[in-house]
Amino acid sequence: MNKFYTALVNKRKLIIVLFAIAFVISLVCSQLVGVNYDMTDYLPENTKSTVSIDIMGEEFEGGIPNARVMIKDVTIPEALEYKDKLKAVEGVTEITWLDDTVSVTVPLATLPEDTVESYYKDNAALFTVTINEDDQVDAVAEIREIIGDKGAVTGSAVSTADATTNTVSEILKVTAIAVAFVLVVLLLTTNSWLEPIIVLVGLGVAIILNNGSNLIFGEISFVTNAAGSVLQLAVSLDYSVFLLHRFEECRKENTDAKSAMVDALCKSTSSILSSGLTTVIGFIALVLMQFRLGADLGIALAKGVAISLIAVFVFMPALILCTYKWIDKSRHKQILPPFKRLGKVVYRMAIPMVCIFAVLIVPSYLGSNANNYLYGSSEVLGADTQYGKDTAAIEEVFGKSDTYVLLVPKGDTATQTALSDELHTIPEITSIISYVDMAGAEIPSAYLDAETLALLEGENYSRMVLSVDVPYEGEETFTLVEKIREIAEKYYPDDNYLAGEGVSTYDLKETITADTLLVNLISIGAVFVVIMLTTKSLSIPFILVLSIETAIWLNLTMPYFWDKPIFYLAYLVISSVQLGATVDYAILMTDRYRENRETMDKKTAIPQTVSDVFVSIMTSGSVLTIVGFLLYWMSSNQLLSQLGLFVGRGAVFSLVIVLFALPGLLYMFDRFVMHKKRKERC
Length: 682
Prior knowledge:
Elements: H1 2-10, H2 12-30, E1 34-36, H3 48-59, E2 67-71, H4 76-87, E3 92-96, H5 113-119, E4 120-121, E5 124-131, H6 136-147, E6 151-154, H7 156-189, H8 195-213, E7 219-221, H9 222-253, H10 257-284, H11 292-329, H12 340-368, E8 373-374, H13 386-398, E9 402-409, H14 413-424, E10 429-433, H15 435-438, H16 450-456, E11 461-468, H17 475-491, E12 497-499, H18 501-535, H19 539-562, E13 566-567, H20 568-597, H21 602-634, H22 638-668, H23 670-673
Helix pairs in contact: 1-10, 2-8, 2-11, 6-7, 7-8, 7-9, 7-21, 8-9, 8-11, 9-10, 9-11, 9-21, 10-11, 10-18, 10-20, 12-19, 12-21, 12-22, 14-17, 18-19, 18-20, 19-20, 19-22, 20-21, 20-22, 21-22
């Protein structure tokens, strides 16, 4: 490694030029990366609802209804006028109302009450609308302009449009505040006014390189777009800070800057690389999820940390050597105290904290697995947003409802009639629009107008549009999906296709929950192996992984005690993210303890170790905490907000356990921790 690092420091100007060119190219490429806000797009391709959507796209021009538009205080003729206006909106491919189910030229009192009240109730009209995926933002904006204050609009297309509009500006604010906070933290924890700028430049280059390289995927998920950069900033910060601190230490022993940098790189490689690898592996575990949004986030975060490691070992040494004279000129007195007293306090509390830690392990594990979950995107936008208010207004009049589409083979009208009759017996199905319901089994298709027929009959399949009186997700919804699929399977074995937001959410639930055990086991096992290989110990990875896993369980058990539902995706992602992002603190604490134990007894090594690593751990931990809480406070997207809360709160729990419980564990198991201690070699 010595020869490699010597070659790097000798080519420092060339390295800076190459990274500058890569930075500019990546900055341009990052603007070309698309962002996908639809969670159902990340379902596996062989999922039933995904296959159904694909077949529907081949058979029919319109897609699945994805919006509901309510207009208050309208008569039947006025409602029909609004229907024509909504139908003319660019991006609206289909619109369904009462006149598509029954004749509105007869008195409404003569028509089935349930059918009428599904579309027209208390002088309010409710339209079921299908909006093209590529036109959702503009179409929703135009619909809101048409309906004005008299109306409300909800549905997956609307939530996607609102998320697209709001998330970008919110993330820019989060990033700006996060960078400002990082700058303040670095000013407090470094000894030079210029060092924070150097660290931020290195991090900024790595983040832009990662964002630009996302172009190879074409598009990324909104979760990756929102959380990727700030999480990369938070988890990679300590690598650069650690290298700077090592460089300062080595310069005290070696007056030649280049030799000191080579020495610093050699001494810090093991710690930084092991920390980085555990973080990368924690994120890579998400790639194994069947739900491809996990893979999208996992690849981007793992790639980001890997790029940060390359930047630390290649770009940062060159940047530091080109600026170290300016760093020296901008030196100032240490702002923060050495925290020697804190080390002594932690030593006195070590055994009681281990006892508390041991008591919390089992209940926190049980509580973390007993939460109530949300699986889809129906609750992504909060009640205080425009979407939330509109949804509440529609549900106040028409209740919680959804629209499903069932495809069955074309031609056998007798079987279709029998299927429709049995579906009509399900109380939650309020109306069915299909060929046999509108024309009857005896009426030839030639008697229907071409436009109506095109909505109901494809080349190979007939389409049945079901209005259902259930929410977008929940046990009631999932039971209904199972019942409809069971009935359809009875009449058309292995040749029926059901789609809709509730259906996709059901499949989302089945897919995500199946990922849980695999993702957690892989992330824990891989991190365990990396720590075991770098420390040549079985006991150390057990202690460290148990410490961070307990912090994760404490984090996830809080919603259970507060009786708040959580997004299952956030629950699944944070298990890998918190492990990968905060196990570094435990590794740093353990490495420094083992280093101190070579010259000290364990009673002296514990307070000294806490004093040595407190600033480094708090620097990274406080940034991760603030980044998480900024996402929580500033994001109107409830999934991102909850993920931010988990990140911020999880960082706090990890910090507390690493700083107060881990020292006691190292003290108690010192014999095993120091077994086969390997000296750092270059």
